[in-house]
Design goal:
The complex is a heterodimer of chains A (444) and B (582).
Chain A (H helix, E strand, L loop, with lengths): L1 H31 L9 H4 L2 H14 L5 H13 L4 H17 L6 H4 L6 E6 L12 H8 L2 E2 L4 H4 L5 E3 L1 H19 L3 E4 L3 E3 H6 L23 E3 L3 H9 L3 E2 L6 E10 L17 E11 L4 H18 L4 E5 L11 E9 L4 E10 L3 H6 L2 E3 L6 E3 L1 E9 H11 L7 E2 L13 E2 L8 E2 L13
Parallel strand pairs in A: 4-8, 7-13
Antiparallel strand pairs in A: 1-10, 2-3, 5-6, 8-9, 9-15, 10-11, 11-12, 12-15, 13-14, 16-17
Chain B lengths: L2 H7 L6 H8 L1 H8 L13 E3 L4 E3 L2 H8 L2 H11 L5 H7 L32 H10 L30 H6 L1 H10 L6 H37 L5 H37 L15 E6 L11 H7 L3 E5 L2 E5 L1 H19 L3 E4 L3 E3 H6 L11 E2 L15 E3 L5 H8 L2 E4 L5 E10 L6 H5 L8 E11 L3 H22 L3 E5 L11 E9 L4 E12 L1 H6 L2 E4 L2 E4 L1 E9 H11 L13 H4 L4
Parallel strand pairs in B: 6-11, 10-16
Antiparallel strand pairs in B: 1-2, 3-13, 4-5, 7-9, 8-9, 11-12, 12-18, 13-14, 14-15, 15-18, 16-17
Helix pairs in contact in B: 6-10, 10-11, 12-19
The chains are: A alpha+beta (444), B alpha+beta (582).
Chain lengths: 444, 582
């Protein structure tokens, strides 16, 4: 009897724990906004007519996704010959497989093959009558950045911008924001820590070994939380489950945020602060009606080119080939700036048209003007200013023979009308390798 | 993982020395019959004496008795612990007596069937408690690493621990601990410290004698006459000494672990201006009596369409409020810039060693966000984890300064950083319970950090100057506010005085801290070896730190103050803030 009683007690416990757990998860979902069930275009994806087309597309993008399996599962479900438990599993797998199929590709891009196409170039490579120095050398001479001996104190590849360079970061942000406000962008301040499912619905993986995403320790914090890699994720989360008025469209949003990326690189040309784990970025996110995203992409590209050109940079725009698009993009432009110190073009910005890929997964809709029917909106995103890369391009382009750097005119008003960056006048500190204090070191 | 496994990881390790105390009968009786404590696993009802661990139920405890960990611990306790007497004997006083072995037995297992029947309603709470903090990765201090641990862990630095100096100012230290409401028995700690010192002295003595013996053996070897008997004697002596040394070194490590971690958790001494209780008003600007308002800033923000608040981890500022955020940051950074502050853009991450160096608990997930280990953490035993603290925070500045020597010509070195501040839970419970911007975990902030020379009046000068400068900035903003010194119990470990800039929340009917300036003295510099050099001698800097403004808190108070505003733009902001954009 006693044993029975104990079993009963422990069962009750288990039940309570279980209820508590489910309650907790329900609670957190509700507070974060319900994650919508993706509404994918099954009529297109599961139509035999388009099967070869989709297959061709996946192959061209060198992406993942198995259309054969999708069709197989779809047929199984349609025939309805499955038992009830079985069909639950099949439906689950069907949904998972369906989610993996990448976006369509713009027909103009599809013909490029594996080669990117330069569509536009602005400015020329600046001629130097001296050997142009690299960003790291310039900042070392002028005492603008510290990157050394920080690994054990503030993490791998961390950096501190000092004095005028910190000011230039702020100036770049202000310059960009002003330009965007002129173009009727709405500014939003976004959270940097997001629930993992929002990031996944944007088309990024958060699990696995090669993840680019930092996560909070899942043993210490309830629910999966990630540090956002770009404000695009936070903005998409902001718009999740929204039904927009057609008068609101095109909706232009911009956000200044810190971005955290776990990726690392040991490539020589990505040394210094070229690829870092954390940086400030101004991101643009647009929502349009379903047939005007292509035109909006061109507008976005022109805006970016114009901004970079006005800072005196030599930039080229590249139309990315299918295999560089990633899963969500229908078409994507990369903008590269010439970095004379490195003697190479480095990507400073990109903009992509995701058509309805994200809006189907995050349930972003609008009501059409004429018919009043509810349609999936199209989303676009683009980098307005990723600070570290911009700093590299600016410093290397505008350097003088004596190591000082000219500040581009549009930035001067935000830097107290300073014209050049000179050597910072606060003295350099000395890092002591020894982990002990000098025995004589003592305060009275 | 089930909660049984999780709980195993969450215990604290007590040193062998303390457990020996516990094993004495009267202590043991007390420990085995503890009062219900809801904060301990299993409400403190299931305790293993020898391992000093709590378990969540009888089953877990009985299972534990069968584990290797427990059996190993019993074995370790069989030898009587090292004592001062023994060390004296080892060092040559009296004759050597080998430590006695004693029989150690597991306490009688709790018979599950005899357990008093538990109220079913209270049961789940246990489990909820056990789940809430499922796994502390407790590997102890990241700042102080003893010799035996150093094999597995890379230690970044060794803090300068001025125990003697601290104990010299015993009354001040005791007062600081008492007023802060902390529970540390300083006298006992001092006693332990004395023991550590004697044992360390013994270690040196034994080492010296070992050197002596080896030298004599060498001498004998060199000599032509073979004094075999003498040689044998010396060899035996050497062997004994080696064993002694081994035991002593172990004892030193064991003691260091207990003493040093306790010493590191001692708070800073208090400044004489810090009130014992209640706040002390420094200045007040445009105080108006306000009637209680029924609408919180979350409601006002929604009404004005500038705030979309989801939870403390997630809120969106829209349109003009987002601009307001940037403008306020810019305003404070610019103004501080004109007071000779150098602008910085800091790293957002900090390692455990720095977090602990700042006197914050690096293992507490509600103090800083602790990140999942990534590739650059060498192995899972590494205590030096990655924390998300934000660029505009004290740990971030400390990472920059740790192990640095600042040229004396640069002092006072005033730095300011614009960025984010991330705090999982607001320190103040009332604020955390209120769902609003006051408890938000992410805050755009302006942080300042001043290093001064080792001179009290210099440091206090900087402190006063900064408080005055910030007061002027807030005056120019034009909203009512007050500056107070916070009482001892509200101070962090590293602070000896904190000037708090506060605005009134008419919804909460209380003051909310918008910014603060603190005197840290040399508390952090000593722990993180932040020094300057003068006349070829290194000295520790004295630090003044603070947050000039925390934007979400300011915004919350402003929204409640102007709850009747028609639009966000119609709220009167000074020209200096508007200048940039609106």
């Amino acid at each position: 009897m006693k044993i029975l009683n104990i079993t009963f007690q422990s069962l009750c416990c288990a039940k309570h724990v279980y209820q508590y757990k489910s309650l907790k998860s329900l609670y957190s979902v509700l507070r974060n906004g319900e994650v919508p069930e993706p509404e994918l275009d099954i009529d297109y994806l599961c139509n035999d007519k388009y099967k070869s087309e989709i297959e061709e597309n996946i192959k061209r993008r060198k992406g993942i996704g198995n259309i054969d399996r999708v069709h197989e599962l779809h047929n199984k479900l349609r025939n309805g010959a499955l038992s009830e438990e079985n069909s639950v599993d099949v439906i689950k797998e069907f949904k998972e497989e369906l989610k993996l199929i990448p976006n369509k590709t713009c027909p103009l891009v599809a013909v490029y093959g594996d080669n990117p196409k330069v569509v536009k170039a602005i400015g020329n490579k600046r001629k130097f009558d001296f050997q142009p120095k690299e960003f790291t050398e310039i900042t070392k001479m002028l005492h603008l950045v510290r990157t050394d001996n920080l690994s054990n104190l503030s993490g791998h590849k961390s950096y501190y911008l000092m004095g005028d360079l910190a000011e230039m970061e702020q100036a770049l942000v202000w310059f960009t924001i002003k330009k965007l406000l002129e173009r009727k962008f709405q500014l939003i301040s976004v959270p940097d820590i997001l629930p993992a499912h929002i990031i996944e619905n944007c088309g990024m993986t958060t699990k696995g070994d090669r993840t680019q995403v930092y996560m909070l320790d899942d043993k210490l914090y309830k629910g999966d939380h990630c540090l956002s890699g770009t404000a695009e994720m936070s903005l998409a989360g902001y718009l999740m489950n929204r039904e927009l008025r057609v008068t609101e469209l095109p909706l232009r949003l911009a956000a200044v945020s810190r971005c955290y990326r776990a990726e690392t690189s040991r490539m020589a040309e990505e040394r210094g602060i070229y690829r870092v784990h954390q940086f400030t970025k101004v991101e643009m996110f647009l929502v349009t009606e379903c047939n005007s995203s292509a035109a909006m992409l061109e507008e976005l590209r022109e805006l970016q080119e114009q901004m970079f050109a006005s800072l005196g940079l030599h930039v080229q725009t590249i139309d990315m080939p299918p295999h560089e698009l990633g899963a969500p993009a229908y078409r994507k432009y990369d903008i590269e700036a010439w970095m004379p110190g490195r003697q190479m073009f480095g990507e400073v910005s990109s903009c992509s048209d995701c058509t309805d890929y994200q809006s189907r997964r995050l349930n972003i809709k609008y009501r059409q003007r004429e018919t009043g029917s509810l349609l999936h909106a199209h989303t676009l995103n683009g980098t307005a200013c990723a600070v570290p890369r911009m700093l590299i391009a600016l410093l290397e382009t505008h350097q003088h023979a004596d190591g000082t750097v000219a500040i581009p005119e549009p930035l001067q008003p935000y830097m107290k009308d300073k014209v050049t960056v000179n050597r910072q006048d606060f003295p350099e500190m000395k890092f002591v390798k020894s982990k002990y204090a000098d025995p004589k070191c003592k305060n009275d | 993982m089930n909660w049984l496994q999780l709980d195993k990881l969450s215990h604290t390790f007590l040193s062998i020395f303390q457990i020996d105390e516990d094993l004495k009968e009267e202590n043991a009786k007390q420990l085995l019959n503890q009062e219900t404590d809801l904060d301990k696993p299993g409400n403190a009802q299931f305790y293993c004496l020898h391992c000093a661990r709590y378990f969540i139920n009888d089953q877990a405890l009985n299972e534990h008795f069968r584990t290797k960990v427990h059996k190993r611990r019993l074995k370790a306790l069989e030898l009587e612990p090292y004592t001062i007497e023994e060390s004296e004997r080892a060092a040559g006083k009296g004759s050597y007596v080998a430590p006695k072995k004693r029989k150690i037995e597991t306490q009688t297992p709790i018979d599950a069937t005899e357990q008093k029947s538990q109220d079913l309603g209270s049961l789940p709470l246990q489990y909820i408690r056990a789940m809430q903090w499922p796994c502390f990765r407790r590997y102890g201090s990241a700042l102080y690493i003893t010799g035996d641990e150093a094999k597995g862990i890379f230690s970044v630095l060794t803090p300068y621990i001025d125990v003697e100096d601290r104990f010299k100012e015993m009354p001040a230290l005791k007062q600081s601990i008492e007023l802060r409401g902390m529970q540390i028995d300083v006298d006992r700690l001092k006693h332990l410290w004395e023991v550590l010192k004697t044992v360390e002295a013994d270690k040196h003595k034994i080492e010296a004698r070992r050197v002596d013996v080896t030298n004599r053996i060498k001498e004998l070897r060199r000599g032509t006459d073979v004094a075999t008997e003498e040689m044998e004697k010396l060899k035996v002596q050497g062997k004994l000494l080696r064993e002694d040394l081994k035991a002593t070194v172990k004892a030193v490590w064991e003691l260091q672990k207990t003493v040093m971690t306790k010493v590191l958790s001692l708070p800073n001494n208090l400044h004489s201006d810090t009130p014992s209780e209640g706040t002390k008003l420094v200045s007040e600007f445009r105080h108006e009596s306000v009637i209680k308002q029924t609408e919180s800033h979350v409601g006002v923000g929604k009404k004005l369409d500038v705030l979309d608040y989801v939870n403390p981890m997630c809120y969106y500022l829209k349109g003009d409020a987002a601009l307001f955020e940037l403008c306020v940051l810019d305003y404070f950074a610019e103004k501080l810039g004109s007071h000779a502050f150098i602008k910085f853009c800091n790293s957002d991450f900090g390692r455990s060693v720095v977090v602990e160096g700042c006197g914050l608990n690096h293992e507490d997930p509600s103090v800083t966000y602790i990140l999942q280990d990534t590739g650059d953490i060498l192995h899972t035993k590494d205590v030096n984890r990655l924390h998300l603290v934000g660029g505009a925070s004290l740990p971030s500045f400390c990472s920059f300064h740790a192990k640095q020597i600042i040229p004396v010509t640069a002092l006072p070195l005033r730095l300011v950083a614009v960025g984010r501040q991330y705090t999982p839970n607001s320190q103040n419970l009332e604020e955390a319970n209120f769902p609003g911007l006051f408890g938000a975990s992410q805050a755009a902030s302006v942080e300042l950090f001043i290093s001064t020379a080792n001179n009290l009046s210099n440091m206090m000068d900087e402190f006063e100057r900064t408080v005055v400068a910030l007061t002027d900035m807030y005056k120019e903003l034009g909203f009512p506010f007050r500056v107070v010194y916070l009482p001892a119990q509200s101070l962090r470990l590293y602070e000896s005085l904190r000037a708090s800039f506060q605005m009134y929340s008419s919804y909460l009917q209380s003051y909310i801290e918008i910014g603060h300036v603190s005197v840290c003295d040399d508390y952090i510099s000593k722990r993180l070896l932040i020094r300057y050099e003068v006349e070829n001698r290194q000295r520790f800097t004295r630090i003044v730190s603070g947050t000039a403004v925390s934007v979400p808190r300011l915004l919350g108070c402003v929204l409640e103050l102007h709850h009747e505003a028609k639009s966000f733009r119609s709220i009167p902001f000074p020209q200096a803030v508007r200048r940039q954009l609106f």
